[in-house]
């Protein structure tokens, strides 16, 4: 493996999850079960001596000047576009937060016309789908996104640049929207726009005893991708 690619693997090795949140208050701490150690099938390019399967938690970052107008360390945060909130009657019991790129119109339409419209198929699952976007410098593209949201009312767009390194902003923006606009739902599912959801299986999982416990996170852990520590980490 070229040295540049090997370095990139070391920097970017992470645990990827498709996360289903069951929560009472989203931003409170959760208790997760221990992950079983698995040192076989180590990906090439990673030094086993620097990989850990039970990493020490990072220290909590404190932002003393943060307020309701901030998003993590972004001051004066605002929505460029906002979606319709959940119904006041609390009809929806599953909120799906979909990370999407600005120009992924086809992917969003595929979700809307397939599993995203599946509330009528299942008696115990009423779905609210919201697409999370960031701003784009292209005025013509922004006009198309605004038109899309006027038609469907399901787009939440933040006023930060859409980039891979800003995915944390997009994710936290989605959690904030869930708390402010859709606090009555029982479950929150986070996903990307290239994922197809098996609604019938999801309904079974959400109906299980484990999923009904408050403040629970359900996810698939890629055990072959342990945390890679940088020097001094």
From TrEMBL:
Signal peptide positions (record): none
Membrane-spanning segments: 12-34
Keyword Transmembrane helix: yes
BP-aspect Gene Ontology terms: protein O-linked glycosylation
Membrane topology: Single-pass type II membrane protein
Alphabetized Pfam families for the sequence: Galactosyl_T
UniProt-listed InterPro entries: Glyco_trans_31
Keywords recorded for this protein, A-Z: Glycosyltransferase, Golgi apparatus, Membrane, Signal-anchor, Transferase, Transmembrane, Transmembrane helix
Gene Ontology MF terms in the entry: hexosyltransferase activity
Annotated compartments: Golgi apparatus membrane
PANTHER family, A to Z: BETA-1,3-N-ACETYLGLUCOSAMINYLTRANSFERASE, HEXOSYLTRANSFERASE
Protein name in the entry: Hexosyltransferase
